[in-house]
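WARN retry 2 of 3 for item q-0093 after timeout on previous attempt; input resubmitted unchanged.
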Amino acid sequence: MTIEMIFVLCMILVMFGALLFEMARPYMIVFSVLIVFVLTGLLTPQEAFNGFSNQGMLTIALLFVVAGTIQKYGVLEKLMVRWLDQSQSVKHAMFRFFFPASLSSAFLNNTPIVVTFTPMIKNWCEERGIAPSKFLIPLSYVTILGGTITLMGTSTNLVIHGMLLDRELTGFSIFQLAVVGIPIMIIGFIYLFTIGNKLLPGHKGFSERIKEETREYIAEMVVLSSFHGVNQTVADAGLRELKGLYLIEIIRGEDRLSPVKSQTIIEEGDRLIFTGLMSTIAELQQIKGLELQTGSNLDLEDLKDGGVQLVEAVVSHQSSLLSKTIKQSQFRSQFDAGVLAVHRNNERIQSKIGDIILKPGDVLLLLAGSDFVKRYSNSNNFYIVSSLETPKDLNGNPRKGWLSIAVLLLMIMSVTLGFLTMFKAMLLTVFIYVITKLVTPEEAKGYIQFNVLLLIASAFGVGEAMTQTGLASWLANGLLVIGEPLGILVLLAAVYILTNIFTELITNSAAAVLMLPIGLEMASTLGVDYMGFAVIIAIAASASFITPIGYQTNLIVYGPGGYHFKDYIKVGTPLALLVMITTVTIVNFVWF
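OK item q-0093 returned
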């Protein structure tokens, strides 16, 4: 083992540790490691940044625009609502929902599908007294399984496809993965409708819990003439910097002022509505001239009468709010909304609102203006932004919506028949969307998740360092020494398990990029078809079921479903084992 190999291995271990302990955002961690490799001369700039021009990564960028355009018009969402309303039982509704959702994820990136359907299915469940937790983890799982059917179903497949093309090897055909994808989807459905359904928790919906806890969220104070801040601004009166409490609304006679500005003038008789850590209410009571209204009938429902609404927002991996306290991010001024509470791991964080450092998957309860959902529904700061009382506006242009779907289906057909490559087909699709004004260039840019692309492209460079230094070959030989005497089936299982562990610890695309060079080296040494190892790695990198952090869709449903971390372990572990056994068996039979 050379010094260069030891150095690369140490850097990768440091990278894993930093990712596991969330020391910085994932894309910054991987990109930083890549920069180190360039500065130390292990990689030339061309080798390091070749991933930025990889066909697979560029296709993912185009698919973000395609999925965003289709999501914009809400056609699939409208159809799903009507389809669900015809259900005769809960399990019947589950099948009517999951089957088309999984098929959709075979042709669209599964992340926007889960983002679109999560608030819709949650509202549908709560209106009928059904626990959303019975639907949302399965929603994530079936879209993951559906994404394994086609080349374009998930970013992992496209990344591996692009890496194979870069090595002048034949990539995946559009339906090549279906030989494994369809069987594991069928097995996944059977499991989720039987054993998995019994293991799923029956947690109450988020809005239902909020209504039960409503008195814990707000406190009301009346301004007396003796208050020193009468006729002063909120900031001058010292009501902007209270420890653990936020002034979210002022009720003045028949008028409501919300969100409250720093320059708003305090008047005698004003009713000040505070939110935050209610255990610090004593601080307010010590201020002369502020009287606590212990007999107030005001609750969260009343607050909505002031031209504002209660909104649930799930913090995304790409959010600018991460690693900062709510106060440091200047949330109120940035989004014109007040944070009532933060839920993490199905529990409300009992801390001062302004001091909470946000993490991906956190659920924010906001008091926001009536246009908040429309303004931030496609923001990279949040996975989901939805009103707790009213369903998302579905009044998109249906004609344009159907046209966007028709163009996509036509392009898929052209790829299937071999007229166009996947990259060219998606490039043409986006071009048609723009020239027909189905999407504006500004909207298209907003749909692209540049942080995700940076992570994937940087991971390409890290994978290249493994190959160039011989580390990939060394690791492959190490696996062969251990597994070869036990047979090809054990080797395939070992590669699957290692890839799956990486997926749970980091991200699916990064796991695929790091494992593919090892898989190709093993295939070369054994003198067998490399495609079998490529398929194993593609499926294993996508099949993230055991934790909420390994795959974006698992994290998206984490908060809205009210899940605990252990729920994923309990429900996902049997499914992960079933998928692994099925995949390894089929790959061994078909390619070896």
